[in-house]
Amino acid sequence: MRCAAAEALGKIGDLGAVDALIGTCFDEDESVREMSITSLFVIGDPAVEALIVRLGSGSSDDRQIVVEILVDFEKMAVPRLIEALTDDVEEVQSGAQAVLFDIGPAVIPELIQALLIEDDSHNDKVMEILVEFDEDSVLPLINESSEKTKITQ
Questions:
Q1: What element of type H or E holds 75?
Q2: Residues 7-47: tens digit of each pLDDT
Q3: What is the pTM of this model?
Q4: Please, which residues have CB within 8 angstroms of residue 3's CB and are 6 or more apart in sequence?
Q5: Between these two residues, 118 and 126, which has the higher pLDDT value?
Q6: Which pLDDT value is given to residue 153?
Q7: Can you tell me the distance from the alpha carbon of 137 to that of 34, in angstroms, rounded to the nearest whole number?
Q8: Is 6 within 8 Å of 22 (Cβ atoms)?
């Protein structure tokens, strides 16, 4: 019954359902958890926003579950996660860092692009993430971005 409710909320796509679906991501029933996550994927960007906010609350176990869900969102979540690096809540910042790193090298181009924008308030956090990646993954992309920047100037 709870699984069917989670599925229906996803099909409806009601933004008001996001908090309820996030709540059911912690359900004891695995099928309910999986359907809730699937429904959050269907809702998309508003779900990402709510999950990022959730990084700043709850127990560390709850935050870890949210990190794992955001990792599953991958590319959809990356721009919002980069923005969250400057959030007022330290847990949101550290959670966003963890998610970006856990997504893996696929985020490196977007992190490098974030370094190139004029608003550099998040640069220290972005650099902390980049240094955690293998140098061979990061340096070619930095060089490529640097060349593109020279060409456009």
A1: none
A2: 888 888 778 888 888 888 888 888 888 888 888 888 888 88
A3: 0.74
A4: 29, 31, 32, 35
A5: 126
A6: 44
A7: 32
A8: no
Quote the tokens at residue 28. Answer: 């004891």
Q: Which two tokens stand for residue 82?
A: 């980069």
State which of 9-18, 97-106, 117-126 shows the largest mean pLDDT.
97-106
In 3D space, the residue among 43, 42, 23, 41 whose CA is nearest the CA of residue 33 turns out to be 23
Q: Is the pLDDT of residue 61 over 60?
A: yes
Looking at residue 89, its amino acid is V
CA atoms of 8 and 98, how far apart (whole Å): 31
Tokens representing 53? 């906010």
The angle that helices 108-116 and 123-132 make with each other, rounded to 10 degrees, is: 150
Dihedral class, residue 117 (left if φ above 0, else alpha if ψ from -120 to 50, else beta): beta
Give the residue among 1, 17, 147 at the shortest CA–CA distance from 9: 17
CB count, 10 Å around CB of 40?
27
